[in-house]
From TrEMBL:
This protein's GO CC annotations: maltose transport complex
Domain spans labelled ABC transmembrane type-1: 232-456
Any one GO BP annotation for this protein: maltodextrin transmembrane transport
Family per record: Belongs to the binding-protein-dependent transport system permease family. MalFG subfamily.
Transmembrane domains' residue ranges: 21-51, 57-78, 85-110, 231-258, 270-291, 376-398, 435-455
Main subcellular location: membrane
UniProt membrane topology term: Multi-pass membrane protein
Keywords: Cell membrane, Membrane, Sugar transport, Transmembrane, Transmembrane helix, Transport
Pfam family, one: BPD_transp_1
Name this polypeptide is given: Maltose/maltodextrin transport system permease protein
GO molecular function, one term: ABC-type maltose transporter activity
Organism whose genome encodes this protein: Deinococcus peraridilitoris (strain DSM 19664 / LMG 22246 / CIP 109416 / KR-200)
Length: 468
């Protein structure tokens, strides 16, 4: 009797097709990458506990090794996944520079994370201390802050059990974190003995940060009239005005320079293109010098005409006008170039037919040029509005958000937009750093930008075009 042996079916090397196949491949790659990072985190954590001076970059080394080991194993289970391994660099950069910052921003928005509450040792309140013979008892010579050891260490409980004490040796080159078992008077009992050879000279606490719920958002909206609403209103006015002014200037110049009967139009195009070619950092710094109230050439020229000097950057209203003018200088070449490119797509026969019918040049522009430019300019105007809504560069370089205005927050002055307000809050709030409040501002900016973008898309008919 013949026995038929069943052969083990070979796994398919053909990748799944369609959108479902792409999502499945991306999901497998994300799980593989996440597993490698988890392995790297666990191994580096174990080494950090055994060797306190271990370098932090070990997590990258172990993650990379985990990825090298995991890729062949996954390929044996799913042979078709090898065709998708080229996506790994994109996923790594996307995770490092997009996903991780977004996750951290959302997380910090609900905490009290600041320059002081950073989760790092507090170097400002170190206390001299000695280590007992059992290498588990640390005695402080005095308390730099607070009436009790628990207050100084900012313990979560009365016994301080589970909290952290930071130990320093004489050189204070390495901070060793030790878990606390309990406190009594000025004496701290550690959960585990200190390693041999480490002599404790100073100790300090950890400036912990924790979750505070919606406290940051309540603070923002509680002082909305001093920061949020004025800054939001100016941001919208700035973005909208910039787009309209730049578009009109670029449209007029583009139509004029597209005229083939204009002599030397290539020279004019090159000269008018230069403001866009020069880096904005250089251009804006040049304008800061030109608009200086006392020594700037603009006010010097006004003085020769018998006019009073204008506080271009020293008055809230004039500072806003200056921003719009400088942004016009920086932005009109782009609109001009876009207009010329769009005009090149219009059939010349339309103008010839209109001329035969007796239409004037203005009638041709009104009835042919502008309607045909509408579709080309709609995405340009929408992207220009979105860009200028977050145009941090010109605000920071030209006015630094100033000048100061009475009744406003120190971080939200007369020309600050939402993004510069968040930046000031993150890095210079009351002389320090308030990353949690800045993260909450970033979330508000995101939802405001999303709402405005949806309104713009709806008004421009983008959704109707996508459904066709």
């Amino acid at each position: 009797m013949a026995v038929t042996m069943r052969s083990t079916p070979r796994r398919s090397t053909q990748p799944p097709e369609g959108a479902g196949g792409v999502l499945l491949a991306v999901l497998v790659l994300v799980l593989l990458l996440g597993g490698a990072v988890l392995i790297g985190w666990l191994l580096s954590g174990l080494i950090a506990q055994a060797v306190p001076g271990a370098p932090p970059y070990l997590i990258l080394v172990f993650s990379f090794l985990g990825l090298l080991l995991g890729m062949p194993l996954v390929a044996r289970l799913l042979p078709w996944i090898t065709n998708w391994y080229y996506l790994f660099p994109a996923l790594v950069f996307l995770s490092a520079f997009t996903v991780l910052p977004v996750v951290l921003t959302v997380n910090y928005a609900f905490t009290n994370y600041t320059g002081q509450n950073s989760g790092n040792p507090d170097a400002a309140v170190r206390a001299e201390a000695t280590l007992g013979n059992d290498r588990r008892t640390v005695t402080l010579s005095e308390l730099p802050e607070g009436n009790s050891l628990g207050e100084y260490l900012r313990c979560r409980s009365v016994t301080c059990a589970g909290d952290t004490l930071v130990l320093f040796d004489e050189e204070a080159s390495v901070a060793v974190r030790a878990a606390i078992a309990g406190v009594a008077g000025r004496q701290v009992t550690l959960a585990a003995p200190v390693a041999e050879g480490f002599e404790v000279v100073n100790v300090t606490r950890i400036n912990r940060y924790g979750y505070v719920g919606l406290a940051n958002f309540r603070e923002i909206f509680g002082r909305a009239t001093r920061a949020l609403w004025p800054v939001f209103a100016w941001t919208v006015i700035f973005a909208f005005s910039t787009v309209i002014i730049n578009a009109v200037a670029g449209l007029v110049l583009g139509i004029l320079l597209y005229n083939k009967r204009l002599k030397g139009r290539n020279v004019y195009r090159t000269l008018l293109f230069l403001p866009w070619a020069i880096p904005a950092v250089i251009s804006v710094q040049m304008w800061v010098a030109l608009l200086n109230q006392q020594f700037g050439i603009v006010n010097k020229s006004l003085g020769l005409l018998g006019l009073a000097a204008v506080p271009w950057l020293g008055d809230p209203l004039w500072a806003k006008i200056s921003i719009l003018l400088v942004n016009l200088w920086l932005g009109f070449p782009y609109m001009m170039t876009a207009t010329i490119s769009a005009l090149a797509t219009i059939n010349e026969d339309l103008y010839e037919a209109a001329s035969i019918d007796g239409a004037s040049r203005w009638q041709q522009i009104q009835n042919i040029t502008l309607p045909l430019l509408k579709n080309a300019f709609t995405p340009i105007l929408l992207s220009g509005f979105a860009f200028n809504f977050n145009n941090f560069g010109i605000i920071y370089l030209l006015t630094r958000g100033g000048p100061a205005q009475e009744g406003r927050e120190a971080t939200a002055q007369s020309t600050d937009i939402l993004l510069s307000w968040g930046y000031n809050t993150a890095f210079s709030a009351n002389g320090g750093q308030n990353y949690a409040l800045a993260s909450a501002i970033a979330l508000i900016v995101f939802f405001l930008t999303l709402a405005i973008s949806l309104v713009n898309f709806r008004a421009a008919g983008v959704f109707r075009e996508a459904q066709r």
